[in-house]
Amino acid sequence: MTSDSSLQASVFMNGRGRIADPHDDVPDFCWVTVHLPESMSCDRQSDEEIMNLILCKIQIGNVIIGDSALHSLGFYCLSLPVKGNPGNTGEVLSYAETLTEWWLKQIRLGRVCLDQYSIFQATTRSLEHTNSLEDVPHRWGLSR
After folding, report:
1. Residue 10, Cβ neighbours under 10 Å: how many?
2. Which H or E run contains 18?
3. Does an H or E element contain 92, and which?
4. pTM score
């Protein structure tokens, strides 16, 4: 694994390991966080069920838009990096919806899975990540 201070571990994984997210300090990104019910826990629901719930919550605006990822910190949530201005809520939510739909498709195709431990149990964020172009999420580095 390589070390890159502009990256941190995502809650998404593939056969090679963790997929990279931008680090909280990377400019021009904000985080859309969706909290999940405390009744959920590791391995009680499929990744697809979790992502469908996340998509629904984004569509109704039941999210927190902030400057850091909250997953892996003990909050029962998943945070998505969104390139954009957090003050433009409509644009941020639209991009988060598109990104969630893309991740949901990747899960359905068996290309990625969720690290449910990071969502439901972890209380510290792992520094491990992968750093290959295949592991950069949909349109992650492109301007909108």
Report:
1. 28
2. strand 17-22
3. helix 89-108
4. 0.81
Q: How far apart are CA 13 and CA 78, in angstroms?
A: 14
pLDDT tens, 28-77? Answer: 899 999 999 988 877 688 999 999 999 999 999 999 999 988 887 778 89
Residue linked to tokens 């992502």: 51
Q: How far apart are CA 141 and CA 144, in angstroms?
A: 9
Assigned token pair, 102: 């893309």
CA distances from 121 to 46, 61, 82, 105 (A): 16, 25, 24, 25
C-beta atoms surrounding 23 within 10 Å: 16
64-120 pLDDT, tens digit per residue, is 999 988 887 778 899 999 988 888 999 999 999 999 999 999 999 999 999 888 888
What's the CA gap between 68 and 66, in Å, rounded? 6
